[in-house]
Write a structure and sequence with these properties.
This protein is 14% helix and 31% strand. By secondary structure, it is of the alpha+beta class. The strands form 4 sheets. A 7-stranded antiparallel sheet has the order 7-6-9-4-1-12-11, with no helix packed on it. Strands 13-20-17-18-15-14-21 form a 7-stranded mixed barrel. The chain is elongated.
């Protein structure tokens, strides 16, 4: 075994390795996968001097408790996360968006996310994990990716290929903003729905179901009436598309979504809102707001520029 590794004392609820995902495999039924919240992923890697596409640990709600063995290494956690660091017999409360240095025998205990869903743990170095189609990203529904496509589990030892020499402490003042309205573009089957159904979609609130996961976000609320056909010939899907099955409750396709589907598509979430959408926890209320394609493109460009500006400050 490598001299540098960490042990999973507690894996957490939904803890996986993720990176930017895998491209150009839709034709064989493989979605992009990758991190749910791209901005928090990029910030985590920058805080520990990694390349922007380096693998990280993504967790949902409760994160992992790990014990580190080896030479000094730095790490950072991003998101709205409560965690502690144990060094010898001293336990300190950790702060997100700040890098820390740990050494042999130290522990990181990620207790929970705070009114959000996903958090990210990045170590300053390269994990010794296998890639599949040039990505480590784990899709547990299809058993694709590193770790045999499985979540991290109790007692696993995860090795490092290398540790970064630059372990300068870095931090950034960043607040995860909440989103009031999810901006969407009309879907290809928008006209399948009654005028009342369209009005409900844009004017009423929906509640995020507990059944949501990396594959899709299920919503509950007033039923959206379909006046044409509740099933269509299976068509290609993209991340963020909103399907409405026969029960009238929308489903938003997320990073591990299937590549084809047969439910009518009422709308697509604007890319600018995706990172914040996935952080909306079960039981929360959301509303939709229509915008044009051109506005969506402009807003996303601005969001990317804002992200680059944030990274330049680290």
């Amino acid at each position: 075994m490598s001299d540098n590794y960490f042990e999973i004392i507690r894996p957490g609820v939904n803890t996986t390795f993720q990176d930017k995902g895998r491209d150009n495999l839709y034709h064989i039924g493989i979605p992009f996968s990758g991190v749910m919240d791209n901005r928090n992923y990029l910030i985590a890697n920058k805080l520990v001097n990694n390349n922007s596409d380096t693998a990280v640990i993504e967790f949902a709600y409760q994160g992992p408790h790990v014990k580190y063995y080896g030479k000094k290494i730095n790490f950072a956690i991003t998101g709205d996360v409560i965690f502690s660091i144990k060094k010898d017999n001293t336990e300190i409360e950790g702060k997100c968006y700040e890098s820390y240095q740990i050494e042999n025998g130290n522990e990181i205990n990620i207790i929970s996310t705070n009114k959000s869903v996903y958090g990210y743990l990045a170590f300053g170095g390269e994990l010794d994990i296998k890639l599949q189609w040039n990505s480590c990203s784990i899709n547990t529904k299809a058993n694709i990716g590193s770790n045999n496509g499985k979540k991290l589990d109790f007692g696993q030892n995860i090795k490092f290929k290398k540790i970064n020499l630059n372990q300068d402490v870095k931090k950034i003042n960043y607040i995860n903003t909440k989103i009031e309205n999810i901006r969407v573009i009309k879907g290809t089957n928008f006209d399948y729905f009654s005028e009342e159904g369209k009005k409900i979609f844009y004017e009423k609130e929906f509640i995020v179901s507990k059944l949501s996961d990396r594959m899709g976000m299920r919503l509950e609320g007033p039923k959206i009436e379909n006046i044409v056909n509740t099933n269509i010939k299976s068509e290609g899907l993209i991340k963020g598309v909103i399907q409405v099955p026969a029960d009238g409750n929308p489903i938003i396709m997320l990073s591990d979504h299937g590549t084809v589907g047969g439910y009518p598509k009422i709308a697509v979430v604007a890319s600018v809102d995706y990172d914040r959408l996935v952080q909306i926890s079960s039981g929360s209320k959301i509303k939709f707001k229509e915008i044009s394609l051109s506005d969506s493109e402009t807003l996303f460009k601005l969001y990317e520029m804002e992200t680059l500006n944030l990274l330049s400050q680290i």
